[in-house]
Amino acid sequence: MPDNKTFSGAAGERMYDTKGKLIQAHGGQIQKFTVNGTKRWYWIGEDKTDGYRPCGGIHMYSSSDLFQWKDEGVILRTMDTIEDFMLPYFKQTYGDLDRIEQKRLFVDLDRQNCVIERPKIIYNKKTGKYVIWFHADGRCPGSEGDYGKAKAGVAIADSPTGNFRFLGSYKLNYHNDPTADYGFDGWENRGSVRDMNLFLDKDDTAYIIYSSEGNRTTYISKLNDAYTALAAERDTAREGIDFTRNFIGAYKEAHAMFHYKNKYYLIQSGCTGWSPNPASYAVADCPMGPWKEMGDPCPDVGKETTYDSQSACVIPVEEENGIYVYMGDRWNEQDLADSRYVWLPIQFFPDSRIALPRMENWTFN
Ligand code: GAL
């Protein structure tokens, strides 16, 4: 049995919070925030307590050591009916909204129909707000499928533990050529967003990385100064300046970007739903690329499924010492609540090559 100073890694043991409950933070992200003078790790992710649906919203945990995780609760809550806006929690979070506003927000918070995936959070020094972006999808008027809406949702709060106020969901940048191949989305559904992630650069510029054009192409778009919207209006944004299209037609998702020694790295998966596939990675000098494809980061047995995992994020544990941890999801389609977390150390080699070794019960030393 791994003790509390060991990561089970590719063994994918269950992970529990300090009260002994299974951690519900899938498709997540871990980073350090200083809150009221105290530095802690914050782990945000999908709450899949009830499986796929009802949708459990976004859960947060915190830790001083990456081993013991305190439950900080569901920080972005979903609703059973639109009348829930009258409940004390939602009144406190949203105040008095008129019916039109309630309806607009409810589409993305409706537990019985919405899909909330891959939530990510960044802190904005200028506004003092924590900003969450997530893949906002699900059934909605005009779209019966779970992934037809294909938008990005945004929420803000004064603390990483909430309450987060959901602002809305949006289509993002698109390639302005109606004759181009938009995959299964088509031109009508341009600007679609499915798997996504955020990246905050050293110069405080933030980016959103997302699968678009029917998952064919990876977009990387600049966010505005508040991190709550795109930097440039969707219909006038300039391709190559405000956003870039990367790995065109390569069908990548599960984007995990990080920075190490003047290089930007992006680990991704292929598109096979809950089933794992081989990972790939790329290296660039700037967050928006151009990206140089470097192949599969996994050298060991089980690489054809990334050791039965799909990338969620990379944790910059100690950047100065090159300690980075790959965090993947081992989805269990039959029982999503029991999906596991696969954490592996990242190894760095000359010429910007990296490796994800298959390791079980490993420690930092
Ligand atoms: C995966 C994606 C997950 C989830 C799943 C649903 O490809 O990475 O976040 O959307 O599909 O099938």
Structure description:
- With 365 residues, the protein is mainly beta.
- The protein has helices at residues 88-94, 99-109, and strands at 26-35, 38-46, 58-63, 70-76, 114-124, 129-138, 151-157, 165-170, 196-200, 206-212, 217-222, 243-246, 252-260, 263-270, 280-284, 292-295, 310-318, 323-330, 340-345, 347-349, 353-355.
- The strands form 6 sheets. A 4-stranded antiparallel β-sheet has the order 1-2-3-4, with no helix packed on it. Strands 5-6-7-8 form a 4-stranded antiparallel β-sheet, covered by helices on one side. A 4-stranded antiparallel β-sheet has the order 9-10-11-12, with no helix packed on it.
- A hairpin with a 4-residue loop joins strand 17 (310-318) and strand 18 (323-330).
- The radius of gyration is 19 Å and the shape is globular.
- The protein starts with 25 loop residues before the first strand and ends in a 10-residue tail after the last strand.
- The relative contact order is 0.13.
- The model has no long low-confidence stretch (mean pLDDT 97).
- It binds beta-D-galactopyranose.
In spatial order, strands of the major sheet run 1-2-3-4
Query: How large, in whole angstroms, is the Cα Rg?
Result: 19 Å
State the shape.
globular
What structural class do you assign from the helix and strand content?
A: mainly beta
Beta-strand residue fraction: 35-45%
- Secondary-structure element pattern, one letter each: EEEEHHEEEEEEEEEEEEEEEEE
- Number of H- or I-type helical stretches: 2
Helix coverage percent: under 10%
Give me the oligomer status: single chain
Q: Span between N and C termini?
A: 18 Å
Mean pLDDT value: 97
Number of strands: 21
- Biggest sheet details: 4 strands, antiparallel
Instruction: Give every kind of bound small molecule, once each.
Output: beta-D-galactopyranose
User: Uncertain runs with pLDDT below 50, 5 residues or more?
Assistant: none
